[in-house]
Amino acid sequence: MTLAPGLPTRIQLCGPTVIEWDGERLERRLPGRQGRLLFAYLVLHRHRPVGRDELVEAIWPGQSSSTMDTGLNPLISKLRKMLGAAAIEGRSSLRLRLAADAQVDVEAATQAVHRAESQVALGEFTRAWGPSLVALFVAEREFLPGEDGSWIAQERTQLAEIRVRALEAYAAAAFGTGGTELPAAVRAGRRLVRLVPLRESGYQLLMRALAAQGNVAEALSVYSDLRELLRNELGISPCASTQAVYDQLLHS
Predict the structure, then answer these.
(1) Which of 59, 115, 178, 236 could bridge across to 131 with cysteines, CB 3.0–4.6 Å?
(2) To the nearest 10°, the Cα dihedral for 56, 60, 64, 67?
(3) Nearest to residue 40, comparing CAs of 60, 65, 59?
(4) Top CATH class, 111-250
(5) Are 92 and 51 in contact (CB under 8 A)?
(6) pLDDT averages per 10-residue partition of the chain, 252 residues
(7) pLDDT on residue 4
(8) pTM value?
């Protein structure tokens, strides 16, 4: 069971850590750096019990679990005192319980990018704006800044992909809306090309947006740059869908 609904719970793990719990800001009461890591790990894996050995590895990577297990006990005790005894269940395995309406930024970003992509696929471009920006807002901030670890690196990799997908959805929404939103589509396309230079979707969006503005020659130049980059870096040509955009521009 989850905790009974009360005042909204909001947890931010990207950028400065924020914990709004039952109407209070609690992040300053975390038991130091290790307490922050423990809390973040339990939040990310709150849908399953997490073993003590796994928690030790997350907080003290490479250290013996038998040696560091005693260091885990006071951290758990302090978190229970901070959040309430009902918030963390278990002894040999632990599970964080949050209210059903709790907001966790990394989860919100994942949900938002799915909504944005779905609205773009349906051609509901104005409805894709909001969720794409929500996902971007979260994903552009660093996850647990100043910390290292394999699970932290994995989460940052996933957020980097969400950032790209959100930017693609935003660019597609701006392009699909057209008119005064075309400059936003061009800017987003340029950001995509800089961010993931070997990902052709950004070039396709940028080419279409430039052409819609009447800048066909510049759009063709974007294709030329991509073709040269792919040839030099990978020894390949642009994919069929990119070639189709190029052919369409040539005959427009």
Answers:
(1) 115
(2) -80
(3) 59
(4) mainly alpha
(5) yes
(6) 63 97 93 96 96 94 74 93 93 92 96 98 97 97 96 98 98 96 97 97 97 96 97 97 95 82
(7) 45
(8) 0.90
Q: In this structure, are residues 92 and 49 in contact, taking their beta carbons and an 8 Å threshold?
A: no
**DSSP-assigned beta bridge partners for residue 143:** 14
Handedness of CA 137, 140, 146, 152 (dihedral sign): positive
**Would you tell me how many other CB atoms lie within 10 Å of the CB of residue 90?**
13
Architecture of domain 10-101: Orthogonal Bundle (1.10)
According to the model, what pLDDT value does residue 71 have? 86
What is the structure's pLDDT at 62? Answer: 83
CA distance 53 to 75: 14
| Tokens encoding 247 | 């052919």
Best CA proximity match to 43, nearest among 73, 87, 109, 91: 87
Task: Write out the H or E segment, with its range, that includes residue 178.
Answer: none
**Residue 69 in tokens:** 């297990």
* CB neighbourhood size of 252 (10 A): 8
Task: Work out the number of other CB atoms within 10 angstroms of the CB of residue 136.
Answer: 23
Spatial distance between the Cα atoms of 191 and 194, rounded to a whole number of angstroms:
5
Show the tokens assigned to 246. Answer: 């190029």
| Residue from 90, 96, 97, 98 nearest 52 by CA | 90
DSSP 5: P
Angle CA 181–187–189, to nearest 5: 105
Contact indicator for 134, 43 with CB cutoff of 8 Å: no
pLDDT for 172? 97
Domain ranges in the chain? 10-101, 111-250
